[in-house]
Structures are given as structure tokens and as C-alpha cells.
Amino acid sequence: MATTLKLILFLLLSLHIFSLVSSHRPHPLDPLTPSEFTLVRNIVHKLYPSLKLNITLQYVGLDEPDKPAILLWLSNPKSKQRPRCVFVIVRLDKQSHEIIVDLATHAILSDKVYNEHGYPLLIYEEQLAAMELPQTYKHFIEFIEKRGLNLSKVVCSTFTIGWFGELKSKRVLKVLCFYVDGTVNLYIVEYYDRFIVPVPKAEGTECRESKLEPPFGPRLNGATLVNPYGPRFKIHRHTISWANWKFHLGFDVQAGPIISLASIYDLEKQKYRQVLYRGFISEMFMPYMDPSEEWYYKSYFDSGEYGFGLSAVSLKHFVDCPTNAVFLDAYFSTNNGTPAKISNAFCIFENHAGNIMWRHTESSIPRKVFTEVRPEVSLVVRMVTTVGNYDYIIDWEFKPNGSIKLGEFYQLENYFLKNIRITNKSHNKFYNYLLLISGVLEVKGVTYTHIDQIKKNVHGTLLSENTISVYHDHFLTYYLDLDVDGKANSFIKKNLETIKVTNPSSPRKSYWTVVSETAKTESDAQIQFGLKQAELVVVNPNKKTNVGNNVGYRLIPRSVAHPLMSYNDYLQIRGAFTNNHVNRKIENKDIVLWYTIGFHHVPCKEDFPMMPTFGVGFELRPNNFFDSNPILKTRPPYIVHLPNCTN
Amino acid sequence: MATTLKLILFLLLSLHIFSLVSSHRPHPLDPLTPSEFTLVRNIVHKLYPSLKLNITLQYVGLDEPDKPAILLWLSNPKSKQRPRCVFVIVRLDKQSHEIIVDLATHAILSDKVYNEHGYPLLIYEEQLAAMELPQTYKHFIEFIEKRGLNLSKVVCSTFTIGWFGELKSKRVLKVLCFYVDGTVNLYIVEYYDRFIVPVPKAEGTECRESKLEPPFGPRLNGATLVNPYGPRFKIHRHTISWANWKFHLGFDVQAGPIISLASIYDLEKQKYRQVLYRGFISEMFMPYMDPSEEWYYKSYFDSGEYGFGLSAVSLKHFVDCPTNAVFLDAYFSTNNGTPAKISNAFCIFENHAGNIMWRHTESSIPRKVFTEVRPEVSLVVRMVTTVGNYDYIIDWEFKPNGSIKLGEFYQLENYFLKNIRITNKSHNKFYNYLLLISGVLEVKGVTYTHIDQIKKNVHGTLLSENTISVYHDHFLTYYLDLDVDGKANSFIKKNLETIKVTNPSSPRKSYWTVVSETAKTESDAQIQFGLKQAELVVVNPNKKTNVGNNVGYRLIPRSVAHPLMSYNDYLQIRGAFTNNHVNRKIENKDIVLWYTIGFHHVPCKEDFPMMPTFGVGFELRPNNFFDSNPILKTRPPYIVHLPNCTN
């Protein structure tokens, strides 16, 4: 969606609870402070005084300076900075206004009505209003009572309706209501239209420890990391430095975590070198694979529609993050412009997973056998966002070897079983066009209690009696603005190609070699993985190693999933950014990688009612960026003997 | 090689330093004890009294009972077991004898001369003899003196010669010698035939901390895991039980670690259920991609030629494994049959990497928001084997969710630069046909100091002046005898196929669905990943979930690399087992998966002189094996508060 891509270009940075060093001049990427949010609110209300109460602020975020300004500031922090500006989207008379505010002069720099396709993301208050609307809606109340149900046990949630070619789409939500019958796992209890059908057993669907009955699984031990030398990372406002890494951690209501200005210290060159100007998840595309009336439209854009940042949850000490984690809060603007806080939206911790960074045992020289080992420690930045039934664990991991591991991305879900089928077609007021429909299962499958009964394609897996989970995809597109040792970068495909040996005297018949290919145009750089064996490297053609290799960073995929819907499918047209895994945008050679990862989810019993975490992800690894192994001269850790501890 | 596949069917299990419980009846898979090794030695020497001194024992391992016998014993440990037998390979008069010994009666059950292609792996003493041979060889000594070199500074290593179509291959080694000039990183110093050429700088190639000069990298903190509740795993002889897992850890001089009888406890069924009868790395294939005279033959089978087990190193506390690790020794037979010990060949530890096992925040019901999180703990079994310049870190990770993650396999290398070119063609005595040749670099590339000087294909990357690293592959084939809830299993491809929606009234144009395909024949089950989107599941067609799904385990690949050599290349003929990623052997429906993973290694500067670890691997994940999420009823850990510790 146009808005989606537009919005994510603006970011709101997180304000964390403490700064080790205080400073008066903010980093130009620093987030809006609560007082700045309030200032924005007053300026906007002054702009439309008569309409104060009808205005909703859909988005308030820093209007980020462009890259040259940021780089100038980096090279000379005392250089004159442009005044801090804020990008605001307000809804007013069913229109989306894009307003830019100058915080210094309080001036409105621009106020444009946005007329393109799409709408700003759904803010919390809108969804709450929609969720509560049915309880006040006459026909709905009658409907509930007619069935002898208790209105107080009806809970509703909001769902986007997708797009199917409309030239002018409406700002409309589907609201699905659930009947909560003794379990808060509200996707589980089944109720159907005008007559009762078998209800899936609630047994085994409870997930709250307090409500679980024995037998229990083994209690896995907790452990505390004791590190007498303390964590090595420093947080100064929003800039985090650890080992040889330095980066800025931002927060945006739509994208969630944003990593900016990541650079790594080069021991030989004795300076920090740029790696990643900015990276974040630009969108999450989740189409379902059931063409039936009740399900065909299901295709969510969790970032653009619901907001990864807006849906961020407060992380729990010790279980969401290990004992050595440090937590940071995040702030955002509510619909009326007053700032709100998400406590512990981020955690940052040194990861001691017991891996080895490098090792070698040399035994070729009898009397000179030696072993050198360096255990691995990395730094993890974590945010968890919960969109409906999905929990996404977003990890950014920084390794001393120069690697950035992204999206050790996990998801968990439980399953939709809607329990009231209602249709209502009243129109013409904001949020009044509500299509309250049921989910899929009461339409087909709900009567099935065993696979043998299923004779047709049910587009999913029978997980328990009357419970079918529908096939779907998860595609995440990462925005990766790599600045490898500077802005001007090139995208290189190192194709591995087989060479046949024709010389009959050679015992070899073949070997492979590397044929490098520089992408000249965007289409050159459109790639589907798995089709060809190649290494993908973003290089700086203007910088060389001591023997002349282009310095670069390599993209190492972990799992490969190609979209399986036809390109003319409306869902796929919206999700067209997933057609290729890598899609280069050229901005005066300032390359941005749009990298899509994902997986096709064929649900299985183990995913019911809660799916164990499933990881996909990828790695950005230095490739001739350094002149030699950058961790060769990392000394082994001090031995920490098991201490005497008293709890 | 025939021998390779033959040998790995026999395994020698590790004897660890302590048992929590002592027992008199050994597990039928338990390894040979030192006294059993000695007994074998005496029996073999009695068999060939006159030849005692000319006999070398190339392999001594338990002659494992077949699966029915093991399963019978499992069901009734009191049932009569066949006597313990040992499989021995001895070299005698240039022949390989395969001998089976009955430990109870001391009888020789069989003594066959092995006449097929291939030879047993190289034992330590043979390699040592070959390494020392040049120093006693007249022509070699003259050669060294002629060059004014110091013989005591010459170190030699042994290299297999590959196979290039010979009908009867010789048991021959290439011995490469290096001149150690102030660094033990003996691959680095360069010397060439009859004249001096530029010598690669030794600077930056030292890896011993004691010898490193500042500036140093940041010292990464060590950390101690404090777990007041102690580790949850128990080791009884060679059987390890932890959380819901139970398995047997074996050791073989060729394969290294062998996991047998892995089964998982089903909370609902209240019993252990079989998953993996046996799994290990059956071979490691490493072809180089330089067709030149000096390099064309380089293609190593590190398991079959050098032995992963024989090359296992003693793990160092705290750096190779975290502080909470428990270590186990391994035993093997020397050439004369006396037992030898590898201290700390294995480490076993609970892994607290800070991951999340499952979580959900439910906020749809305003007054009933809840969050449930279960942090992940897993159990890791680790062995490290060093074959020449490669260190392989072999991890088996068991997760409470039923997953087995294999081969979070890392490798590290430094680079060959041979420094003496010698040819010598004397024949006719065991080990006397020595081809002492140089490596690649003095032939081409050695004069290059910058990439711009290179005008032809050098089959590698210029890593530093005069130093080129040659392209090569790493392919590991895993032997995975899955017994999913029993022996009789089937191999199913769940193909994800696009369905076009032809009904014009439907807003959808397409969706994907799952079309399952049961492999009837072995060729049905030959698969190259990446060509088609499919899930691969080993199922037990005789066992169903409560709603009728086949119980199964899914193979989830992580990285995909296809061989790039032509199939008629002798190297690829030997490595033909890598042609397909999955190759099913059918043994009365007792399926064995031969799964090949690997990667093409295009070396880069960061790999010099020591390569940071690089991970490939895969996951075996339950797929409708359980009726529901098996960790749903795992309670959260006790909170462990940061204790007061005194070091």
C-alpha cells in the first residue's frame, strides 16, 4: 500500500528509561520526547481549532533529516542542523491530512490531503471503538438474546478486509465476535448461526499455567548469568555501543525496531566503518489459502495495517529476555495526541549461547601442539509484537565477527474459530459499515471429527475435532539500506558456474568457478533464491582491501520460500514486493535492499493450540570488508569460576 | 567408498568418566571397555601368533546387534542377549582382514579378506610413520641440505591422493612438507622449488594469544551460568536422559558421535515414543575446484579417510563448552590393539541461549489481558574434530518441543601454502611410494601481490600477498535411521501446489494447497531441494493422531547447496552420495534417510588466516507426531534472582 511504504520512511524513536551520559544536543535521529508529542498536539489543534474533537492523530513521528544531513552531522556534530520537524497524519472529515510541523517555530510547513490508494494504520482507539460497537448495536443485541447468550461474554476483534481491485477502497473493518465460554483462549469455543453444531472440546486449549491441570511437562531450569565484569554495552540516549559495534536503536509505531548507523570498529584501520545506514521490517504479508466466501479476503499486512510498533508488548523479565537483559521503554502518540508509553518494549542483552567464535587445534608439529578457542558472545536487541493471534519475536543480533543476524524471527499462533455469524449492512458513518462475519470453520469442516470424513479440499489441517487450520504464508520484507564503507555501493551476484574440462589429459572432468556480475539496473538485481547458486554481495566499488578485493557485505539467506499465488491474484498484487527475494531500488547509487524472507505454513498438530516458535532469518556477513579475520585478535575471556552464590 | 559405508555400520561407543548409577548388565550398544580392547588384542594375536608384530589393527569396534535384537532387549531387558561381538579390521601382508570375535567364547566367528575397492581409514600411527619418513629418506635429506635448510624445521603432513578411475587403487599417501619459520601456523610460510620467490608476510597469520601483538580486540566477557536447581540431565553409562528426551550417545573412530534410540516422552500417552533409531555423520566430502596438476586430486573424505572420531580433540572447559557442561571421555584401539583415551571428547550442557519456546499475549478481552511465556532450554551434545586445517564442531541439540537440531555444524580453516617441492618415485614398500609434492600456490598466484595482476582464472581468492585460497565444497551426509513411533515408516513429500481459481465470480485468482505423495521406491525419494516447494516428512502409516493424521517427523533444511561438478567427474563419482539431498534406502520399510547438507566455499579475506565459524544444519521437527503442542504444559521456570556471588 502506498501509505505503508510512505509511512515507514518516517520514524519515531524510542525513549529509554536511562542514559548513562546526559547530553543537551539530541542526536538528529532521536525520538520525539513526551513534551514534543504534546507540543505537536497543541500545534495541530491550533491549526483546526473548531474541529479539535473530530481530529484523530493517526501517526506522529519524527520527520527524519535526509542522509546527507545526518552524515554531515556525524562528521561534525557542531554543524548547523535543520530544526527538528514532525510528520503527522490526521483524519479529518474522512480525509487523511499529511502535516509537517516545525518544532522550533511551531510553523506548519505543509498540510496536504492524501488522495492515493490506502489508509493510515489502525490506531488502538479505532479498534477499541469497533470492538465495542456491536454491544451497542440494536440488531446485534437482539441476535445475542435470541440465542440465550450472555452479551457480557461476547468479545469482538477487528480484521482488515483486504483489497480486490476496487478503484477507491473504503476505510472499513470486519469485526469478528467470539463467545467466551470459560476460557480466555477466545479462538477456541465454537458456536454456529441459528443452530448448534458439535463444539470443539475446550480441553487442551488452555495455555495459562494457573489454569492447567496435571500432568505437567518437566520444569525446565532457569539459570542466571553471572558476569562479574558486567555487560560490555553502553547506552547513551538511543545509541548503543558494544564490543566493536555501534548503532542507533529507533522505534516506529508501524515498523517497530529500527537500526540506524550501524558501524563496526576496524582494529587495523583504528576507526569505525559504516555498514548499515538503516534497517527495519518494512512489511509483513500474510495471505490465507482458502478461496471460500468467508476466507478468500484474508490477507493481512501486520505492519501497515496494525503496526508492529503499536502492537509491541511489554517484555517480561527472565522469561522474554534473560536475566542479564536491560530494558527500554517506547513512546507513541494516542489518537488525541497525548503521549503513551510501552514499558520494556525492548530488551538488550549479551548472548552467551555456548557457541564458538573460532577455534583451531594444531597437532602437525609433534612437540608444538596447541589449541586456541574463542567462545562467542553476541549482542541481541529484541522486541516482541503481538498482532491478534500472532506473536512475533524480532531479534537483531550483532556479532564480533562483523555479522548481523536478523529476524531470528519466530512466530506463534493459535487458531481462529469464530462463534457467532451476524450480518449487518447499515452504512454511512465512520466505522458504521461493519461486516460482522464468522470465520471459516462453521462453514466447512466444523462437522468433521476425523480425517477419514473429509472428502474434499478443506484448505487446511484438521487439528482436533471440528477444528481446521487454514494454510497460509508469512512473508517479511526487510528494508536494508546498507552503506558499506560509504554510500556509493554496488550489488554483485557471484555466480558459481560449472566449467567442463575438455582437455582429455586432465583427470578432472569439471570444476566450478565464480563469475561475478554487477547489477546495472534494478531488474538485474531482482532475484529468486534457489534457482541459481550465487553469492549476493553489496560492495563498495570505491574501496579495496590491501590486495584489491572490493570491500563488501554478503547476504546469507537461511530459508527460501517463493510466493505460490499467481501474479494476477489481488492478494499477490498487494504483496507484489514478495515476488522476488531481493529487489534493488537505486537512489543515486545509494542502494536499498528490499529482502523478503518467509515460509509457507502447513499447520500441524504440534501447532495447536499454541505453536512452538519457528525460526527463519538471514545473516549479513562481511565479505572482504576486513583485510583479515576481524576477531583473530580477540583475547580469550577471563575464566569465571563457578562462584559461591547465595540466593 | 565401499569400505567407508561398510565400516560405519559398526560402532565403538564412548566410555565416560562417571555413571550416576552403576549396573552390571551392559546396554547392548555400550562401547568396548579398555579390558575388552585388550581381550580383542590377545585373541587376534593368538589367531596370527607368528605375525604378531606385522599386524596392525585398523579398526576395532562393537559388532552391534541388529535392530530386532536391540528392540527385543528394550522391551525386555532380561531377555537373552546374543554374546557381545567385536568387528576388527587388521592389515596383514598388505591385505585387509575383517574379523568377528565373540568376546564370551573368545571364538573367531569369521575371518574374511576384504577384496573390494578402498581401504580402511588411516590410523594415527600410519600417518605418524609417513610424516617422519622423509627425515629418514636419503634423497630428501640431501634436498634439504642442498637448500641450506634446517631439517629439524621441516614438518610433514599426510594427504590422501583421491581416485581417478583406477580399477585397483593403491594404499598410498601424499606427504606434504612445510618449513616452519618462526610460526607454528605451518601453512603460511612459502618456499619454492629451486629458487626463492616473494614470501607471504607472516604478520597477521599468528593466532596464538601468547604471541599476538596489540592492538587487541575487545575482550568479550565470560559468564557463568548459575543454576541453583542443577542440570536436569542424567547420564547412566551411555544413556542420557533430559527433560522429555532419552537417547544413547555412542562414539566411533570413523563417524565420531552416534546418537541411538532417541525417544521422547509423550505427556498425554504417558510413555516414551521412538523417534531416531540411529543418527551420525556418515561422510564428509570436500572437493577442491582447481584442475591444475598440483590440485586436481584434492578431494577429501574426512570421515572415511581420517576418521572424525580418531581426529576428535580434547575439549577445553569454559571455551569449547560453557561452564555448566559435563565432559565425557572416549576410547579407541591403537594399531597394536592397546586401548587409548581421548579425554573430554564430548561435552553435554543445557543451553540457555535466551530464546523463547512459546509465548502469547492475549489482549482482546479488556479486563483479561494475559501473557504466557516459556523460555527455551535445550540440551546440546558436542564433539569437535580436527582434520588437518579444519575444525568441525558437531552439535546435536535436543529441544523440549520434540525437535532435534543437527549439525549446527561449524568449520574453521586456515590456508595451505606448501613450501617445498619434491618428487620421488621409489616404489614397492608399504608407504614407500611417496609423492612429496607442493601445494598450489607456488605454481600460480604466488607472485601476485594484488588482484589487478591476475589475468587468468586462479581458481581461488587472493587473500594476502602471494596467498590464494582455492574454491572448494563441504558436503556432509547424515545417516538418519528414523523410527517414528516404530520401525515401519514411509517417506512423504507434501508438495505445495498452486491452484488457479477458474470461477470468475470468485475474487481470488489462485491459492496453494498440499498434495501429498508417498515415495514408493528409492528413486521416488531422491530429492534436490530448492527445485520444488515441498515439506518432507517421515511418517508411520500405521499410527494416527486422535483425528487421523499420520504421525511423522519433518526434515527442515536450513541451507541448500547442489554439487556443481559434472556427474562423470571422478571426484563426483566418489561423492555421488551428494547428488541428491535425500536418498531413501528401503530395508523392509525400515527407512534410512541419507541427508546431505553442505556449502560452496568461496573464501574471503575474513577467512584468513582463521575462518570465523560458519553454521549450516537442519532440524528434525515433529509433524503430527503429538496430538497437540507437547510443551504447552511445560510450566515456567522458577525465577532465579541474581545471587550474591563471591568469586
TrEMBL record, chains A, B:
| Copper amine oxidase N3-terminal domain residues | 123-188
This entry's Enzyme Commission designation comes to: 1.4.3.-
Q: Enumerate the Gene3D superfamilies for this protein.
A: 3.10.450.40, Copper amine oxidase, catalytic domain
Sequence ranges assigned to domain Copper amine oxidase N2-terminal in this UniProt record = 27-112
According to the record, cofactor stoichiometry and binding are noted as: Contains 1 topaquinone per subunit.
Signal sequence range: 1-23
Question: Which residues carry out catalysis?
Answer: D302 (proton acceptor), Y390 (schiff-base intermediate with substrate)
Keywords annotated in UniProt: Copper, Disulfide bond, Metal-binding, Oxidoreductase, Signal, TPQ
Q: How is it modified after translation?
A: Topaquinone (TPQ) is generated by copper-dependent autoxidation of a specific tyrosyl residue.
One family name in Pfam for this protein: Cu_amine_oxidN2
A single Gene Ontology biological process assigned to it is:
amine metabolic process
Look up the record and name the cofactor or cofactors this protein needs: Cu cation
What are this entry's molecular-function GO terms? Answer: copper ion binding; primary methylamine oxidase activity; quinone binding
Q: Which residues carry this modification: 2',4',5'-topaquinone?
A: Y390
Domain (Copper amine oxidase catalytic) spans 225-406, 437-582, 583-631
Q: Which InterPro entries match?
A: Cu_Am_Ox_Cu-bd, Cu_Am_ox_TPQ-bd, Cu_amine_oxidase, Cu_amine_oxidase_C, Cu_amine_oxidase_C_sf, Cu_amine_oxidase_N-reg, Cu_amine_oxidase_N2, Cu_amine_oxidase_N3
* PANTHER family in alphabetical order: AMINE OXIDASE [COPPER-CONTAINING] ALPHA 2, PEROXISOMAL-RELATED, COPPER AMINE OXIDASE
Family according to the record? Belongs to the copper/topaquinone oxidase family.
The name this protein carries in UniProt is Amine oxidase
Q: Which organism is it from?
A: Quercus rubra (Northern red oak)
